Amino acid sequence: MNRLATTFTGLEFVNPFILASAPPTESKKKILKAFEAGWGGVVTKTIGLHPVENVAGPRTIFQRVSEEAPYISRMKRTDTVSHSSWNWELISDQPLEQWLPDLEDIKKTYPDRMLIASIMAGAGSDEEMNNWAKLATACVEVGCDAVELNMSCPHMDRKDMGANIANDEDIIRSILGAVTGAVNVPVWVKLTPSTSQLVDAAGAAYEAGAASISLCNTFPSLPLMDPETMKFEVEVDGLVTSGGLGGLAILHQALQRVSDISKSFPDGAISGIGGIRGFREAFNFIVHGAGNLQVCTAAMEEKGSGGVGVQLIKELTHDLNDYLERKDYASIEEFRGAARERIVEHSAVRRKSGNYNGGYSIAS
Ligand SMILES: Cc1cc2nc3c(=O)[nH]c(=O)nc-3n(C[C@H](O)[C@H](O)[C@H](O)COP(=O)(O)O)c2cc1C
Prior knowledge:
Number of domains: 1
Number of strands: 14
Bound molecules: flavin mononucleotide
CATH superfamily: Aldolase class I
CATH topology: TIM Barrel
Shape: globular
Mean pLDDT: 94
Strand order of the largest sheet: 3-4-7-8-9-10-13-14
Helix content: 25-40%
Distance between the termini: 30 Å
CATH class: Alpha Beta
Number of helices: 9
CATH architecture: Alpha-Beta Barrel
């Protein structure tokens, strides 16, 4: 019995852990290595139609803290533990024409693993809607099992792309219309956590045919400046721009957002992302309602595995399986969403006087 197997958005996953759209899924070589290691699926690095040129410096830094030097920095120090990743990397610079034969080969080599193409185009014109449809159609024709629409990249200059459009329900609906009209596979929508209208955006997406919401992309943020050198921890010619924070530092905020969506749409599928580096973080996403789990920073940080988390996927599957066996759960479905009812309004939590009780009893 494979307790790790899950059906998510109608797709059969050998285990619920997949690599998120990012450097670990930027090439055929890395994706094949990830599947060999045991990942249940991958979301490709986001594929677009517009030329991409990254900044002339590091695209990602990994920030760490230690008891001895308890400040956040990328600087090498002894006994540090991971705090976060910060990146300002753009979408894939590999053109669609190069991706297509690669995707076909990957799917043929690992037919039992889920291959999800992350795609991105613009908004506001028929031409851009056609671009979404073109990208989705091309990827599905070569065997991709699903597409994930990137409406969440936090560092886009174009106002009609990435996180810049995720507040606009009309745009969300039109893009979903274009994509669901073009392909017949589950369409996942990756939203930005950086909006006060996340629940409305998710509602619009589900209503317009999204099979799942993927959440979270990185949080818009700035790197730190060193007081002695007056340099940012990452900069080009002294300049920097808003980038994205990922890793452990965003775990709690990501959980809050997954919970918000899960409470509003208990039947809506959610792929949880943000700070997963072991079973305990994954468990927390599941109890808030996620039925699938995506990982980026922890895989990138693993040394000696080419940045695809070879050891990590072994630990994740081992530890989840061990938990399911100990609790005699047939699958994650038996505890998925278990925390949902226990997240309540502040006023529903009992006061010392005993007055305010939302009626929920933990003993039940
Ligand atoms: C260097 C880097 C590049 C990324 N590129 C993309 C991308 O192309 N498309 C996308 O949807 N998300 C991208 N992400 C976001 C990740 O997929 C993920 O949502 C985020 O890092 C949070 O997960 P984590 O805490 O496990 O890192 C990128 C993240 C990093 C660190």
